[in-house]
Design goal:
Radius of gyration: 18 Å
Strand content: over 45%
Order of helices and strands: EEEEEEEEEEEEEEEEEEE
Oligomer: single chain
Largest sheet: 4 strands, antiparallel
Number of helices: 0
WD repeats: 1-28, 164-206
Number of domains: 2
CATH class of the largest domain: Mainly Beta
Keywords: Repeat, WD repeat
């Protein structure tokens, strides 16, 4: 077993298994459903949408599977580069896809699958680097980087807003606070987790569609 995720109501667990299948389990260990489909790689990085209708997972080096549980329909995001990780937006409408070639792609998954934007600038050569949505109305995209910086882009324009110094090792993961849009956490190989926030409260009043966002040096 290489990945797992909870159903939104906490009643079931979904698992990605080495035999390339996805299973849904009762908490007592009873298997309820199993989807095999056409897969060529073990299932990794598995998520379930908040309505419980779609299971999303990396199913091949260059593809992400979107499985509709009710309609039993499979859709695929196909990339030209190896996919290393992905992140689902809170509204289930968008997916951030991290690639081996140091790009992050934003995909719309609500209806027809569509590549919306690309984000560049962060460094990735050896490690899995993760990104996330965040800020007011999730208007920003953040990512770790192997150059010890935390990168933040404007989600709509793709423009790099900030590259935050503070860590002394590769930043592997970032996570925006789900209730405070002005707070971001980053985890690094320097064995610290840093919490980032706005320098002053007046910055909260700035237009979320502008680049008026300023972060203080994260404290450990």
């Amino acid at each position: 077993m290489v990945s797992c995720g909870w159903s939104p109501d906490g009643k079931w667990i979904f698992s990605g298994v080495n035999d390339k299948s996805i299973s849904m389990w009762e908490l007592d260990g009873r298997e309820l459903e199993c989807w095999k489909g056409q897969r060529t790689l073990k299932i990794s990085d598995l998520e379930i949408t908040s309505d419980g209708k779609q299971i999303i997972s990396i199913c091949r080096e260059t593809a992400i599977l979107l499985l509709d549980r009710e309609a039993k329909v499979e859709r695929f995001i196909e990339e030209d580069q190896t996919i290393t990780s992905f992140s689902l937006s809170r509204d289930n409408r968008f997916l951030l896809v991290n690639l081996l070639n140091q790009e992050i792609h934003l995909w719309s998954i609500e209806d027809d699958l569509k590549l919306v934007s690309k984000y560049r600038g962060h460094k990735r050569t050896r490690f899995i680097i993760r990104s996330c949505f965040g800020g007011l109305e999730q208007a920003f995209v953040a990512s770790g980087s192997e150059d010890s910086l935390v990168y933040i882009w404007h989600r709509g324009t793709g423009e790099l807003v900030e590259a935050l110094p503070g860590h002394s090792g590769a930043v592997n993961c970032v996570s925006w606070n789900p209730t405070n849009p002005h707070m971001l956490a980053s985890a690094s190989d320097d064995r610290t987790i840093r919490i980032w926030g706005l320098n002053n409260l007046s910055a909260k009043q700035k237009d979320i569609h502008g680049n008026g966002i300023h972060y203080s040096n994260g404290g450990t």
